[in-house]
Amino acid sequence: MADGIINVYKEKGFTSHDVVAKMRGILKQKKIGHTGTLDPMAEGVLPVCLGKATKLCDMLTDKTKTYEAVLLLGKETDTQDVTGTVLAEYPVHREEEEIREAVLSFLGHYDQIPPMYSALKVDGKKLYELARAGKEVERKARPVEILEIRVDKIELPRVTMTVTCSKGTYIRTLCYDIGRKLGCGGCMESLTRTQVSGFCLEESLTLSQIEALRDEGTLGERILAVDKVFENYPAIVMKPEFDKLVHNGNPFLRNQGMESSVTVDGPVRVYDSENHFIGVYEPDRERNLLKPQKVFLGGK
């Protein structure tokens, strides 16, 4: 069974679950998970976790993401993108400078109302299920953060933007909100996710490319080892007599690791004495211990 992360290029028309199902067929293994849903109309980077790396899914879902989006001004739909039913159309009489100002005004924190066509649940039911039944319910605004936003091109009624944002941000809704701010409505015409944490578009692989690499026997070269995700954390290697502690997922004292100049003031990568990656540990200052944050149990 393969363990690690593959940077998949999700193509249009596939759901994120479709990608996982196809990857299970390609790799002939069940333990596979994705790291953040992309709508079927969207494309781009979708890190897929294999084997032990599936424990990483929630950690990567929390990472910031970068998108290239095309905002279509003058049209509002029920899904907030061009796949939905048109609810209203307006003329677009806005100067480029007005548009740039409106787009850039969303930089930073803002409260975003999730779209009805989303997988969020209200009273146990997914919003998109209610929307398909013709029901609309009140949704609470949620705080999101636009870390970076820029206008790349304006060819009215289209505006191409690059957006880096926090977890939970709906780019469809951002497009809708910008359209509302301009007073002419708007919806998302296209969306490409270009980066998730350290995974970028240029290094992503389509499903057909992954299948071809599997047949060549070289796919392993494109699977990122789990510990590479944490390369910016300092590393601690255990003394042989204390390997059992980390193999069992127990906390340990700093001096039970081999002598090093590592300063432990945040998360660290922990390896056993044979350099098998165990997981990420964090300091417990009250007990002067390092305790497990996420354990992958290296090679044992």
UniProtKB/TrEMBL annotation:
It catalyses: uridine(55) in tRNA = pseudouridine(55) in tRNA. Its EC number is 5.4.99.25. The keyword Cell division does not apply. It is an enzyme of class 5 (isomerase). Coiled coil: none annotated. Pfam families: TruB_C_2, TruB_N. Belongs to the pseudouridine synthase TruB family. Type 1 subfamily. Responsible for synthesis of pseudouridine from uracil-55 in the psi GC loop of transfer RNAs. This is tRNA pseudouridine synthase B.
